[in-house]
Amino acid sequence: KAGVTQTPRYLIKTRGQQVTLSCSPISGHRSVSWYQQTPGQGLQFLFEYFSETQRNKGNFPGRFSGRQFSNSRSEMNVSTLELGDSALYLCASSPTGQINQPQHFGDGTRLSIL
Amino acid sequence: AQKITQTQPGMFVQEKEAVTLDCTYDTSDQSYGLFWYKQPSSGEMIFLIYQGSYDEQNATEGRYSLNFQKARKSANLVISASQLGDSAMYFCAMREGPLGNTPLVFGKGTRLSVIA
């Protein structure tokens, strides 16, 4: 069974640009969550989608947005990039998002802002 | 307040020895789930073990076991017979509530180094 696939693996952008990251969950998984990981702040929750609906949102500015498609694939968009957005962005999926279901993570997208 | 506290920023262990990584949590919910993840230097997060708040037995998965002490709100990870490949960051995480509509909250992590 294929794991969670995130593309691209690496991205370099400049301040003010926007970026879209993609996540394909494990087949049959309908819950997709996004996390930002930085050395200073650690792992922080961005949002969770289930059946194309945003079910939960973390404490991030409106520049961070996401969506989920009918095939459960998810995209995350960051507009007007800032230097502080440099991070590893991790996507995770689980069947339905119940608390006893482990979230399985992709390899992440490493975003660098110049 | 921190929901998940990992007090050991770094630890060293001799190959083939056992090691315990500490995790304490803070919640007022009766229903919650506790998870441990491993993150090698390559970046991927690997799920290791899960413990539900109502589980009476400590969870075990191969060389990993979870020492769950509910009254003390601790969920320590025990790795037996350490291997060089166990060198990585280890994160404790919690999800609260029975419905699963709350985010997974992570601790700051413990960097484990296994010495030959």
Question: How is the biggest beta sheet of chain A arranged?
Answer: 7 strands, mixed
Give the helices and strands of chain B as they follow along the chain: EEEEEEEEEEEE
- The value of Rg of chain A in angstroms is 13 Å
Proportion of strand residues of chain B: over 45%
Calculate Rg of chain B over CA atoms: 14 Å
Distance between the termini of chain B: 38 Å
What is the approximate shape of chain B? Answer: globular
- Arithmetic mean pLDDT of chain B: 94
Shape label of chain A:
globular
Q: DSSP helix count of chain B? A: 0
Task: Give your account of this protein's structure.
The complex is a heterodimer of chains A (114) and B (116). By secondary structure, chain A is mostly beta strands. Helices cover 0% and strands 53% of the residues of chain A. Chain A has strands spanning 5-7, 10-13, 19-24, 31-38, 42-50, 53-57, 64-68, 74-78, 87-94, 104-105, 109-113. In chain A, strands 2, 4, 5, 6, 9, 10 and 11 form a seven-stranded mixed β-sheet that branches. A four-stranded antiparallel β-sheet of chain A has the order 1-3-8-7, with no helix packed on it. In chain B, strand 10 (88-96) and strand 11 form a beta hairpin. The mean pLDDT of chain B is 94. Chain B is built from no helices and twelve strands. In chain B, strands 2, 5, 6, 10, 11 and 12 form a six-stranded mixed β-sheet that branches. Chain B has 116 residues and is an all-beta fold. Chain B has strands spanning 4-5, 10-14, 19-21, 24-25, 32-39, 46-52, 60-61, 64-69, 74-79, 88-96, 105-106, 110-115. Chain A binds chain B through residues 33, 35, 42-43, 45, 48, 55-56, 58, 88, 90, 92, 96-108, 110, and chain B through 31-33, 35, 37, 42-47, 50, 52, 91, 95-109.
